[in-house]
Each structure stands twice: as C-alpha cells, then as structure tokens.
Amino acid sequence: MTAVESSFAEAAWHSEEPAVSPRSYWREVGQRYVRNVSGMVATGVLAVLVLSAIFAPLLTGYDPGASDPLHRLLPVGSSGHLLGTDELGRDMTARLLYGGRTSLLNGFVPVLGATVAGLALGMWAGLSRPLTSNVIMRSMDVLYAFPAILLAISISTSLGPGISNAMIATTIIFVPPVCRIAQAATREIAVKEYVEAARMTGAGTVRLVRTQILPNVFTPVAAYASGLLGISMIIAASLSFLGLGIQPPTPEWGFMLQSLRGSIYGAAIVATLPGAMIFLTSIAFNRMSDAFQEAMNVRSS
Amino acid sequence: MSGPRDKESELLAVADLHKTFRLRGGREASAVDGVTMSVAAGATLGIVGESGCGKSTLARMIVGLVQPDRGRISFDGKPLPAERSGEARRDIQMVFQDPYSALNPKASVGDSVGLALRVHGHDRAETRRRVRALLDQVGLHANHASYYPHQLSGGQRQRVNIARALALDPRLVVCDEAVSALDKSVQAQILALLRELRTEKNLSFVFISHDLNVVEYMSDQVAVMYLGRIVETGTPAQLYRRPLHPYTKALLASVPQLGTKVREPPVVDGDVPSPLDPPSGCRFRTRCPHATEICAATTPRLEEHDQGQRVACHLYPPQGEAHVRRS
Predict the structure, then answer these.
(1) Structural domain boundaries in chain B
(2) What is the pLDDT of residues A63-103, one digit of tens each?
C-alpha cells in the first residue's frame, strides 16, 4: 500500500514557475482593445477633441463670446476666421473649441453619475430581500415607462433651464437601465460558488460586495454605460437646442446648431459645422464603445 | 455507525438532518430526509448517489451554507449553532465542484486564497507569506499567487480551490464532487494530492461523488444516498464486494467494466422519482425488483447487518429483532 501511495505522490506533478506573466482581466481587455484598429482611430479622434477642448485658449486667440457685427456669417476659409463666423460675427473656430468643453462634459458627466447611482441601486436591489428589491425595481420601471427624451425634457423643464439641470435630467433617465443591468448581474453573481466560498470565510457584506460582487457586476455595467456616452451628448445637445440646457452666450454645439438654423440658406456650411461636430463625436463614442465591448466579450472564464 | 468506544474520536456527527426546499406555488421538495452519519477524526466518509439525491444539500448543511430544517450537526462533540462562529468556520471548509465558477475571475489567485486569512485578521505580509506556502503545498508555484483564474488549467484551478479550503487549517474538508469536472489524468493527480494532504495534516474528509471508483479510492467509510436518505453504509470493501441494498447493487452493476463482452440489462429501470412527490415508505420501492407491500407501508430504518455494514431495507430484518422472534 505504501509503495502505491508514494508512486501516486510522485505522479502528482509539481508546477514549475509559470512562463507567462500574470495578466488581470482588465489588462487583457486593454491589450485586446489596443489591437482594434477602428476602435483606436475613434479613441484618437476623441483624444484630439478632448485635448483641443481643454487647451482651447492656446489654439485660438478669439474670445468665443466676442461678437463683431461687421463680419457676420463669413464663409469657411475667410482670412482670420478659418471656419468663418456665426450670425453675430463670433469666430466659429473659437466657438466650436470652447463649445466642445460643454458638449463633451455633457457626454461624460451624466453617464458617470448614472453609472454610480445605477450600480449602487442595482446592487442594493440584487442583494436585498424581495420586498426591498421590488420597491427599487418597480420605481425604476416607472421611470422607464416614459420615452427617454420626453422624460429628460420634462425633468429639465421642471428644474428650470441651465447646464447642470440638463445634466441632472440626463443622469436621471440613464439610471433605470443601468440599475436593471446591475441588479440582474448581482443576482446572477451572488449565487456563484466563489461568492459562497467567500461567505463561508465569514466575510462581512461590505467586503463581499467590494471584493467579489462589485468587480464582476462592473463589467456588464461598464460595457453598457460606454454605449451611453454618445447618446448622453446628443440628449444634452437636444435639450440645449430646445433652450433647456446651456444659456447664451456660453457656446455649446446643440445650442449653436439652433441659433445658426436661421442662417442655413445664407451660410450653409457654417450652419452645419456644430452638427458635424456632434455627429463626429457621437460616432467616435459609439465606435469606441463597440471596440471596448468586443474587447470585454472575448474571455475564457 | 459507531459504538460507544469510538464516540470520542468522532469529529463530525450529523443526526436526523432534514431539509425541504419551498418552491414557487407552495410546492415542497424534500432534498435531505433524516440523514444520520458521522466522520471519525482523520477518516474519510464517501457519499455516493445519483445527481439530485441530496448529496450537495447535505454538504452545504455541513459547511453551514444551508440551514437544516430539523436535526443536529455536532463538531468535536459540540453542537454547531445556526450562526457559525469564526472557530467553527475555520474548522470546516469546502472544496467546490466546478473549478471554473469556484474562483472569482476578477481576483488573483493570491487574493482568492488569502481572503479567508484577511477576514480572520492576518495582515497583508502574513497573508502573502502563508498564501505562498499554501500554493506550494498543493503543488503550485508560489508565484502563481499573482496569476488570474483564466490563466490556469482546470487542474491548477482545483489546486487553488484546495489551497483556499486549507488556508485556515481546517480539521474537516467537505469535497463536493471535487474531481468530477476534471479529466481522468488530472483527477488522479488531485486525488493523490488530497490523500497526501490527509496524511500530512491529519484531515478528515467528507468526499461526495457520483463516481464509485473515486469514492472507493478515497474513503474509509461509504454511505450510499438515494432521494435524500442514506440506504446503506459500510467500508468500501464491504459495500463493493457484498452490497446488500438493491440500490447499491444496481449502482455497482451500472459501472462499466473493461473486458465484459455483453452489457447486461440494467438491474433497475425508470427514473429517480421527483423529490417533489417522493414515494411513501422506502423511497426506492418504485424501482426495486424486490418491493413488497411492507415497502410502501413502512420506512425501513438504517440497521446494522454485519460488522458495521448497515442497510435500510426490509429484505434484511434487523438481526437483533430476528433473533428475539426466533427464541
């Protein structure tokens, strides 16, 4: 018997030092993301947009708010005004650059806010008893029942016009879908064997959520939220277009589109510039989100 | 299963354990129905049975993941409370079946193995040192601590699971189908590792499997479960050479053997009855070739038949009683 035992013990192989380097899940996602060409192009475009919005004062000498009634609606390519001027004679280059600040912020801030709120509510609902869970999820359904843009319009109307109210309205309409995804993922993960194993150690709820549940719920939520960036910017632009978002003279692409609308026959190209920026940015956001999701989907466990 | 003499060395004793799951629509599924068993210190109890026979529920009750409806679990002579203390958690650990879903994909091996140590108050440096030692004990390299589950093979993952179960120096490890998801060759390695650890650390095991060969290789005592009840217990030698219960016989007959030319027809046919509506009396009677009226009327008790081999079947009247009747 002992002879058999020891031969078995020898047969049990002892692992060598692993040859490859350790890679976490997010590191693998990053490596796959970097290999996606169209995703990287989109990321490059967004990086240029973000950097030019941040460094707008260095890129143009014009004040985006300074009007010049003598040089209204100059066409693209005019000397001194590379992208022309708007209906009040303000330099379009400066307005588009500075406008990018607000528009990009409108893309990021509501998505970030809704992700945090949706994750918290969704995990709470996913981990609590049926009554609490139902109260949370049914109130989300009530919000979900309205068309998103209508809800955004009514919330920002009731809050009053202004950029921060528009962002709050956009955040609120994004919370229900994020919360749903977080809740479904939480319920799925809470019964996994690794969570049971962690519960068996006697770990408290906070530690369980932090080390086991949140890192795994975050994956599907991040994938979904990345797709909201472009939509968020468009909704904020729509609210501004309707006069509910940014207030003049602060430049913002949606509002610029609205105020240049009247000049579409006089200076067609200048009037479409803000729209082109919105289009370019949201396409880049969407392409980036797709690449991100592709990078996350290919996984071995 | 034990006389008064070996009561002292009894590490885990389970008495009359019941668990019924309430389903939607008010229906009830009886998963475990009156299980009594014990594990001696340093010994391994194997539990065999088909899927759905309550093996996993029993395992989960032993480790405290599921609360029994009725019955007592005592460890080291002391009954375990429903809310387990840190001490009880430390002593009884579990190795899960699926090496894939048992490890958090977002946590490094070191974090998974070290979690229990961190929870039980060890600092980072101490946890790190212990995790490296544990990985070495289960045949992994200490540097595997910084790797992630998706970078490991099934066998390596199962070694990590074992390391995690050993982190708190338990005295009893419950293995719920711990090798079922692995390739045969890897199974052999993991089983050898478990046996090695058992000798080294004087561990007791509850080893649950549907694989009769694996249970035979691992166990000192084997319990056969059918639909939430233990139908027969004994040493592997007793059970495998001379099975008494018709279900045990059927189980053994169903193991494929090399060299047999013609497969004999199965001893029993039909499916396991639903635990939602278990048969009255002996739960095996619906598939048993020897069933009579008494099987439907009364539930056979697990009685000693011969030298510690116990069976719950009306075919084998309790020897004491039979003796009394004859005289």
Answers:
(1) 7-311
(2) 887 777 777 777 777 777 778 787 787 888 888 888 888 88
Q: B218-244 pLDDT, tens per residue?
A: 899 999 998 888 889 989 888 888 888
3-state class (DSSP) for residue B148: coil
State the sign of the Cα–Cα–Cα–Cα dihedral B40, B41, B44, B45: positive
Kindly list the residues from chain A whose CB atom is less than 8 angstroms away from the CB atom of residue B101. Answer: 192-194
What is the Cα–Cα distance from A212 to B64, expressed in whole angstroms?
A: 19
Q: What is the DSSP letter of B7?
A: G
CB contact under 8 A, A200 and B120: no
Domain topology for B7-311: Rossmann fold (3.40.50)
d(C-alpha B83, C-alpha B79), whole Å:
12
Residues of B in contact with A301 (CB under 8 A): 100, 103, 105, 149-150
Size (chain A), residues: 301
User: What does the buried/exposed string (b/e) look like for A83-121 if buried means 16 or more CB atoms within 10 Å of the residue's CB?
Assistant: bbbbbbbbbbbbbbbbbbbbbbbbbebbbebbbebbbeb
Task: Give the ipTM of the model, two decimals please.
Answer: 0.81
A301 with B150: Cβ contact below 8 A: yes
- Write down all domains in chain A, each with its CATH number in brackets: 49-62+76-300 (1.10.3720.10)
Measured CA to CA, the distance from residue A56 to residue A98 in angstroms comes to 6
B67 touches chain A (CB under 8 A): no
- The two beta strands, B303-306 and B309-311, are antiparallel
A35 touching chain B per CB within 8 A: no
Which among B147, B149, B189 has the least Cβ separation from residue A18? Answer: B147
Report the SS3 class of residue B66.
coil
The whole-angstrom distance between B101's CA and the closest CA on chain A is 6
DSSP state of A219: H
Q: State whether residue A2 sits within 8 Å of chain B by CB.
A: no
Q: Residues of A with CB below 8 A from B93's CB?
A: 200
All residues at 6 or more sequence positions from A252 whose CB lies less than 8 Å from its CB, including other chains = A99, A102, A103, A106, A163, A237, A240, A245, A246
HEC letters along B209-239: ECCHHHHHHHCCEEEEEECCEEEEEECHHHH
